[in-house]
Every structure is written in structure tokens, then in C-alpha cells.
Q: What sequence folds into this?
């Protein structure tokens, strides 16, 4: 089945630094989603991407849908302590299955 | 407030004792799904439902059952829990259709089977 390779697995950064993470796959996806999970809570949607090549921002977050439709990246600029959490990418499988395939997550730690 | 609720939030049980985790959403969403989250394995889909009385297996359905008798509710049933079902479980829901991929997650249910 479809798999998403998300990297890095974890990151330790200083407050104020920029962060970049990505997801790749050998499969094509019609939609890419980026979620954040705070400790003890469910994932919350950050950004949704619907077209190949699309670049979308949400505050300090920027995400892009790769041209090949097999990859996506998420950037966080000027990180702050509340950015701590696990970030997941998810790809929507086409063909009417409505299935979301999730990456294994990037755990972000921000040191004040 | 639009939300997905799950109960209980925490559950400790013994092997073989049937249990049900409830899930309810107040957004009139067609699609509902159950996931389990385990360290290093990410979110894995257990079962999903595209509408009332329509359910299908996800990637890890063994040992689980679901039902969708009402649009808002999607309970997860473990008929005979085993220790390998110790995990963090999430229910999720969303609309179906183009551009409707904002999937809402519940707060999670942490299950321990001894």
C-alpha cells in the first residue's frame, strides 16, 4: 500500500530558528495535509494543499505540494516554544477511496 | 462548538473483557474513522465509515469491530481485548467531497490491556 516517508524523525532547535520537514512517497497523492499534535491531544490540521506546485502559508508556516505530487514540505519560521509537538504529513489517496495515509511524524523540540 | 468527543479518555482493562469506546461528532460529517497511534508507527487506520451502515476495514482491523447506526456516532468495539491492543486511539470525522479534507480528531483514548 501507499507509504509516506517523513523526515526528520525529530528535531531539537533554538527559539527563533527556522524549521523544515518533508514527506516523500513513491505514490501519487491528490491532496497533502499537515497536522500538529500537542502532547495529550488529537492532531489539528495546519495546512491543506490541493494542487501540484501549490505553495500555501498560514502565519509562520509555509507548505508546498511537490510538482511530482509525490512529496511535500513544511517550513516553520522564527520558531517559538509553543511550536513544540509532533508534526504529521498526510496524503489523500485518489480514486474515490477517501483514505488519508499518514507519515510517522516529526517531533519538534524548541529550546527557549 | 464543532467537535469530536470520545469516551472514556483513559481505560485500563484485562485481557478478554469486552469494551466499547464511544465516538460522537456534531458536525453532520459523513466520514468517520478510527486510528491507533503507537510509538514509531504513527497513525494507523483501523476502520472507517463513509455513511450510516457503511463501514470498511482500514490497515489494522484485526481484533476490532465498529458500527454506524447513526450518522453522529461511530463506536469502536473490542470483543476480546489483548495486550497488543494497548495503544492511544483517535476517532476522526470530516465531510466528503472536493476540498473537504479538514479532518477533525477527537482528544484520544488511552487504553491499557493487562
A:
Amino acid at each position: 500500500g501507499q507509504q509516506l516517508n517523513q523526515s526528520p524523525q525529530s528535531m531539537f532547535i533554538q527559539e527563533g530558528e527556522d524549521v523544515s520537514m518533508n514527506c516523500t512517497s513513491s505514490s501519487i497523492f491528490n491532496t497533502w495535509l499537515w497536522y500538529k499534535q500537542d502532547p495529550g491531544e488529537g492532531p489539528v490540521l495546519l495546512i491543506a494543499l490541493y494542487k501540484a506546485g501549490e505553495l500555501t502559508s498560514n502565519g509562520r508556516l509555509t507548505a508546498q505540494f511537490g510538482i511530482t505530487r509525490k512529496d511535500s514540505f513544511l517550513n516553520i519560521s522564527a520558531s517559538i516554544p509553543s511550536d513544540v509537538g509532533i508534526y504529521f504529513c498526510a496524503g489523500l489517496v485518489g480514486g474515490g477511496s477517501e483514505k488519508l495515509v499518514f507519515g510517522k511524524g516529526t517531533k519538534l523540540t524548541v529550546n527557549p | 462548538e464543532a467537535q469530536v468527543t470520545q469516551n472514556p479518555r483513559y481505560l485500563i482493562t484485562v485481557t478478554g473483557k469486552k469494551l466499547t469506546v464511544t465516538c460522537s461528532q456534531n458536525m453532520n460529517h459523513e466520514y468517520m474513522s478510527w486510528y491507533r497511534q503507537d510509538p514509531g508507527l504513527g497513525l494507523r487506520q483501523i476502520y472507517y465509515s463513509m455513511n450510516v451502515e457503511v463501514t470498511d476495514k482500514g490497515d489494522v482491523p484485526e481484533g476490532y469491530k465498529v458500527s454506524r447506526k447513526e450518522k453522529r456516532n461511530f463506536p469502536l468495539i473490542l470483543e476480546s481485548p489483548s495486550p497488543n491492543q494497548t495503544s492511544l486511539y483517535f476517532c476522526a470525522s470530516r465531510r466528503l467531497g472536493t476540498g473537504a479534507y479538514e479532518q477533525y480528531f477527537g482528544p484520544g483514548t488511552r487504553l491499557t490491556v493487562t
Summary: The longest strand of chain B covers residues 42-51. Chain B touches chain A through 26 residues (CB under 8 Å).
